[in-house]
Amino acid sequence: MTKSTERIEALRKLAVPLKEKAALDDLVKAASTARCVLLGEASHGTSEFYTLRAELTKRLITEHGCRIIAVEGDWPSCFSVNRYIKGLPGAAGSAAEALAAFDRWPEWMWANHEIGDLVEWLKAHNASLPPERQVGFYGLDVYSLWESMDEILQYLERTGSPNVEEARAAFECFEPFGGEGQSYGISASLFGEGCEDEVVALLAKLRTERTRSEDPQEEALDAEINALVAVDGERYYRAMITHDAESWNIRDRHMTEVLHRILNFHGPDAKAVVWEHNTHIGDARATDMFTDGMVNVGQLAREQLAPGEVYAIGFGTHRGKVMAGTSWGSPAQVMDVPQGISGSWEDLLHHAAGEDCVLELKDAPAVLRETIGHRAIGVVYRPAHERGNYVPSRLPDRYDAFVHVEVSQAVRPLAGEPVFA
């Protein structure tokens, strides 16, 4: 028996068809005791990844008391959704209006019909609950440097803070760069014209560590995380010009820190569901990222939380369609996803199951703990260069469980009709 045949047989024994009720039942049960359930995706543009994560999230909310959804999105945009589903001051009038806050490319990553359906469900779920039991929706990412600075100034002015002028002076340092992170990064990293000292000093003053009961409208939390984005966003844009691994690590350490602060804000019993790409939630130590000196949220969460408090679920597909762009900022298109390359995890699961299925990986045999290619598609995708889209991975060490979608469809953007490649 060849190694490939052994792997296929081992996967076949673990695979539970998704059409069987027990598949998701068992997955929810396995994840239910974790404080942080990390839900991945092999691309940012696959409909089934969104709908399946939504189904799991709803069950973790209704059956196991989860109150936090934290996603790979910008804090200000996600807080617009948070305001809407909780009916906080300044809330949008509809899910579509709340999701319109995602107005920077790739806006379709969150402003899509799949998320719109979840947002409306969250709004209805929260409607009959007291504030302390309502579910929140938060962004973990670091990109919104200028938007976060605007939010901080508005908060300080609204609350009559004595730090308004200090904040305005600190942010004036960024004005010459016109909201362009790359321009700022070049100036800061190559010419030493950075604004780090100013934003670090401001963050120290805005650090509140208030609880949910002390800050029921979440205004102080909003300001604190925006200030953290200003600090880490400055560091990220400065590092991205010259250090790929360093900028990646700044970003994932930031996302982990934001997650901790949200958990602390909601109290010791708070549980979170995290939606991010597989490359963020799957333990980096089980991939070649580790040898490149890179860390990620999945690794850091496992290191920083107690054993059993993190449960990571990866997602992948054998073939189908995906929403992506051919370059950063280019128009989004519905592209073909070719079948998984021979010998990849996607290919092996196709031969082992040939249908949508779930695998719990805790007791996976040694033959499945070897390093094999695992597809990763970003917001930029070039199917012609498919072989370069695979991350060498030990699947059972990277995730606690895995959801395989045999044939996938592209996510449906809220704005306009999808363009097909």
Describe this structure in words.
- The protein is of the alpha/beta class and 421 residues long.
- The chain is built from 16 helices and 12 strands.
- The protein has helices at 3-14, 21-31, 47-64, 75-86, 95-99, 113-127, 145-158, 164-172, 181-191, 196-206, 219-239, 244-266, 278-281, 297-304, 345-352, 395-398, and strands at residues 16-17, 36-39, 68-71, 136-139, 272-275, 310-324, 333-337, 357-360, 372-375, 390-393, 401-408, 419-420.
- The strands form 2 sheets. Strands 1, 2, 3, 4, 5, 6, 7, 8, 11 and 12 form a 10-stranded mixed β-sheet that branches. The protein has a two-stranded antiparallel ribbon with strand order 9-10.
- Strand 6 and strand 7 form a beta hairpin.
- Helix 11 runs antiparallel to helix 12.
- The longest helix has 23 residues, at 244-266.
- The protein is globular.
- The two termini are 41 Å apart.
- The model has no long low-confidence stretch (mean pLDDT 93).
